[in-house]
Amino acid sequence: MPTTTWNRHHVISLADFTPAEYNTVLQTAASFQEVLSRRTKKVPTLQGQVVANLFFEPSTRTRSSFELAAKRLSADTLNFAASTSSMTKGETILDTAKTYLAMGTDIMVIRHKEAGVPNAIAQEMDRLGVRVSVLNAGDGQHEHPSQALLDLFTICTLIDRDRPNIEMLAGKKIAIVGDILHSRVARSNIWSLIASGAQVHLAAPPTLLPKLFAEYIYSEKTDILNGQLFLHWQLEPALQDADFVMTLRLQKERMTAHLLPSLREYHQLFGITRQKLQLCNSNVKVLHPGPVNRGVEISSDLMDDPEFSLIQSQVTSGVAVRMALLYLIGSGKT
Amino acid sequence: MPTTTWNRHHVISLADFTPAEYNTVLQTAASFQEVLSRRTKKVPTLQGQVVANLFFEPSTRTRSSFELAAKRLSADTLNFAASTSSMTKGETILDTAKTYLAMGTDIMVIRHKEAGVPNAIAQEMDRLGVRVSVLNAGDGQHEHPSQALLDLFTICTLIDRDRPNIEMLAGKKIAIVGDILHSRVARSNIWSLIASGAQVHLAAPPTLLPKLFAEYIYSEKTDILNGQLFLHWQLEPALQDADFVMTLRLQKERMTAHLLPSLREYHQLFGITRQKLQLCNSNVKVLHPGPVNRGVEISSDLMDDPEFSLIQSQVTSGVAVRMALLYLIGSGKT
Amino acid sequence: MPTTTWNRHHVISLADFTPAEYNTVLQTAASFQEVLSRRTKKVPTLQGQVVANLFFEPSTRTRSSFELAAKRLSADTLNFAASTSSMTKGETILDTAKTYLAMGTDIMVIRHKEAGVPNAIAQEMDRLGVRVSVLNAGDGQHEHPSQALLDLFTICTLIDRDRPNIEMLAGKKIAIVGDILHSRVARSNIWSLIASGAQVHLAAPPTLLPKLFAEYIYSEKTDILNGQLFLHWQLEPALQDADFVMTLRLQKERMTAHLLPSLREYHQLFGITRQKLQLCNSNVKVLHPGPVNRGVEISSDLMDDPEFSLIQSQVTSGVAVRMALLYLIGSGKT
């Protein structure tokens, strides 16, 4: 493992991540990626520690990724699924978290449909003076930091497999396309990409682009954005000369809320296809956090084309990045 | 581990537990509590053994506690949840248990909404002459022995952290408050507290106090109770000079069955508050098996006050006590 | 472990299994059965490898059996249950499999209600050139190879515990009774039993016997069957002098589809009882893949009689056979 300083106890949001912190995650994940290429993909780092996956919102992909990351660090894992839980018995979320704390949990990985729940739990743990770490695995429409970090790792290791660092993205043009309004993935990605010095172009239909969020950014946080964020109501200006295209999952529920005319029309206007990619830099790569609605956010053949698609690499990166996060916040305990 | 004799193969009920058995559990759990304070909280005691959690009734708290206890003893665990099982396919419960037996399960931890199921499975295992142990994790309104044992451990280790024993409670006054009629926790607690020589005071509204249970105890089992059990329809005489107050979970379903006028009225009459605690011994502590309905069985601020509340300690004790039970019934196998 | 050649990368169907392959499975499973009789029932064979149980159809028995087999080989396991998954989010099954591939899964154990899904996933993995193995844990009404292999192992180890081999069954008469039309277990069993040289007699009510399947067999595949398969609309000719009787689970849903008059009538005509067994060879044994509808496919007392019933042995064999399959397809990886 790289010798680095890391003082962060929880990972809730990327809003205040420093370049040094991003680079620590990237370099630690690169070390674990190397472990994962061995025949025995396991290290004893977190032996005897307990990682509890508290998923108050159903998930397969992210839960399995965290579970596997924890197991490869030799931690014991506990899975909590809201559907079979005492949540139906009237217990509060904080009380559930405190129960897992009292059982001896060292790290809580938390997903909840309401923004702010992981932060509330982290604050409660700090207030209690206990050395339990909280990892936000997605909270409402707020943030999904491990997803943005694995996206960053996927891109940076494409450039330099062994020595990824955030400075590599300075001046790159990155398009984020789709339902930005409802996307916690986009919110986390914006923080990391702005921090990297990239030019970030958001493209979405008017009903799915958060005007208030944009206004908030432009008014109060202009120093952070540093002229790096651009908003588009059409796809083409965002794709023009882009180095990377991040597509976002379209929740089909949006249709019923009348935010979209039809999936077909959405695909015609904002779906990524081979043809539309011709606007981009010739080495352009496409990302998607998954699960993908084939033929909606991205054409089916493009998704499967390893020349353009980084989707499988993202999943693989996910395990290494989550191992890095668990390692960084978990191994400081004594 | 303390060198003790332990001949019990299953733990179904505390009705016939001897003081020596209680003390063996308490002292073994104290040893494991010490293990749990180390950085690596794992021992190889049950390596290669299989603990199957057969939860025919949904549970998070108790299932996670047993799962973690088993993992910290290095056992392999299998989780069975009724909802995703072949129970819907018409298999009998005994057949399900025999299937897990045939797979090589060493210890079955069983929860079922019907009283008697863990005992029926234990008897079937004995009839078959196999060395599988059964732990009752809660059966209907019958018993929940591991909960009562962890309550006992929580109280005794408060008095002497390293050398807990049941004789410590002789002469103590302990109030059990709430829905005693439907509570398997109360039934198990009554057995252990009577065995300890404590004075046990039950307080509940008339609709939630089991008259038949009381009559049964007074008529047929007076030798066991030894003048130690007292019944109250009001809270105050139970709290007067009490050393410990055990509150019970109120199932909200009781409302719909017209056993209670309202939660607000229940809280006014039987909810534990700071003010009502002034009736008790000044060192009084409050327990609750969880999950708590804040502001119903106990006021929210009292629940969070470490001066009075043992609720978090109970959860922590649960892992150590369940490790002790798994160890005691599991390590005799060869 | 026996030193054998094994070139099969996936186990999807028994249709093309060679006698040498059957014997490799049988002998490897016998070695693991011996491991399972030790106190520590674990071997480090698959340490650091990941076995993902992708059960798109609910299951307890088969999923637990595979999970335990994997854990006893020291693999890490991931459980995927369709009900709590992103399947509801519109992802395709192939994409789900590719996600688990990208996470680093070494072996996928797959159950799906549609025939052909495990094969489609295996073909996709081969097309991608990755060294991931697929085990079919039951696909629609197609096949359930691990069940047929454990049935074979149960029968052969009854004859010779240490050196089971498929040639032992040459000339034996084996009846398969019940809902053959809908049974993937029967389809897999027919392949293994025909390969063994046994005489296979199918008995079912006309509505539950696959005429098309029979016609298909008789017309196109007569070379494989080699005069070894016999069809009966009544039970008695199948039982006459039989050495083994394989009963099949009756899905109660068949009643609602008007394929059966009543469970009582089904039991009278095709249920296996002590009395009907008198038609068989005096050493006859009865098998059932479970879960059993007691008093429907088989009388309750017969099911529990160890003189006749192999049902518990089948479950025990299941773990050893699945360890063998995971070992054979998993340990070739480097």
Automatic annotation (TrEMBL), chains A, B, C:
<dbReference type="InterPro" id="IPR002082">
    <property type="entry name" value="Asp_carbamoyltransf"/>
</dbReference>
<keyword id="KW-0665">Pyrimidine biosynthesis</keyword>
<comment type="pathway">
    <text>Pyrimidine metabolism; UMP biosynthesis via de novo pathway; (S)-dihydroorotate from bicarbonate: step 2/3.</text>
</comment>
<feature type="domain" description="Aspartate/ornithine carbamoyltransferase Asp/Orn-binding">
    <location>
        <begin position="171"/>
        <end position="328"/>
    </location>
</feature>
<dbReference type="GO" id="GO:0044205">
    <property type="term" value="P:'de novo' UMP biosynthetic process"/>
</dbReference>
<comment type="function">
    <text>Catalyzes the condensation of carbamoyl phosphate and aspartate to form carbamoyl aspartate and inorganic phosphate, the committed step in the de novo pyrimidine nucleotide biosynthesis pathway.</text>
</comment>
<dbReference type="GO" id="GO:0004070">
    <property type="term" value="F:aspartate carbamoyltransferase activity"/>
</dbReference>
<dbReference type="InterPro" id="IPR006131">
    <property type="entry name" value="Asp_carbamoyltransf_Asp/Orn-bd"/>
</dbReference>
<comment type="subunit">
    <text>Heterododecamer (2C3:3R2) of six catalytic PyrB chains organized as two trimers (C3), and six regulatory PyrI chains organized as three dimers (R2).</text>
</comment>
<feature type="binding site">
    <location>
        <position position="291"/>
    </location>
    <ligand>
        <name>carbamoyl phosphate</name>
    </ligand>
</feature>
<feature type="binding site">
    <location>
        <position position="184"/>
    </location>
    <ligand>
        <name>L-aspartate</name>
    </ligand>
</feature>
<dbReference type="InterPro" id="IPR036901">
    <property type="entry name" value="Asp/Orn_carbamoylTrfase_sf"/>
</dbReference>
<feature type="domain" description="Aspartate/ornithine carbamoyltransferase carbamoyl-P binding">
    <location>
        <begin position="10"/>
        <end position="155"/>
    </location>
</feature>
<dbReference type="GO" id="GO:0006207">
    <property type="term" value="P:'de novo' pyrimidine nucleobase biosynthetic process"/>
</dbReference>
<dbReference type="Pfam" id="PF00185">
    <property type="entry name" value="OTCace"/>
</dbReference>
<feature type="binding site">
    <location>
        <position position="147"/>
    </location>
    <ligand>
        <name>carbamoyl phosphate</name>
    </ligand>
</feature>
<feature type="binding site">
    <location>
        <position position="144"/>
    </location>
    <ligand>
        <name>carbamoyl phosphate</name>
    </ligand>
</feature>
<dbReference type="GO" id="GO:0005829">
    <property type="term" value="C:cytosol"/>
</dbReference>
<dbReference type="GO" id="GO:0016597">
    <property type="term" value="F:amino acid binding"/>
</dbReference>
<feature type="binding site">
    <location>
        <position position="249"/>
    </location>
    <ligand>
        <name>L-aspartate</name>
    </ligand>
</feature>
<dbReference type="InterPro" id="IPR006132">
    <property type="entry name" value="Asp/Orn_carbamoyltranf_P-bd"/>
</dbReference>
<feature type="binding site">
    <location>
        <position position="61"/>
    </location>
    <ligand>
        <name>carbamoyl phosphate</name>
    </ligand>
</feature>
<feature type="binding site">
    <location>
        <position position="62"/>
    </location>
    <ligand>
        <name>carbamoyl phosphate</name>
    </ligand>
</feature>
<dbReference type="Pfam" id="PF02729">
    <property type="entry name" value="OTCace_N"/>
</dbReference>
<comment type="similarity">
    <text>Belongs to the aspartate/ornithine carbamoyltransferase superfamily. ATCase family.</text>
</comment>
<dbReference type="GO" id="GO:0006520">
    <property type="term" value="P:amino acid metabolic process"/>
</dbReference>
<dbReference type="InterPro" id="IPR006130">
    <property type="entry name" value="Asp/Orn_carbamoylTrfase"/>
</dbReference>
<feature type="binding site">
    <location>
        <position position="290"/>
    </location>
    <ligand>
        <name>carbamoyl phosphate</name>
    </ligand>
</feature>
<feature type="binding site">
    <location>
        <position position="89"/>
    </location>
    <ligand>
        <name>L-aspartate</name>
    </ligand>
</feature>
<protein>
    <recommendedName>
        <fullName>Aspartate carbamoyltransferase</fullName>
        <ecNumber>2.1.3.2</ecNumber>
    </recommendedName>
</protein>
<feature type="binding site">
    <location>
        <position position="111"/>
    </location>
    <ligand>
        <name>carbamoyl phosphate</name>
    </ligand>
</feature>
<keyword id="KW-0808">Transferase</keyword>
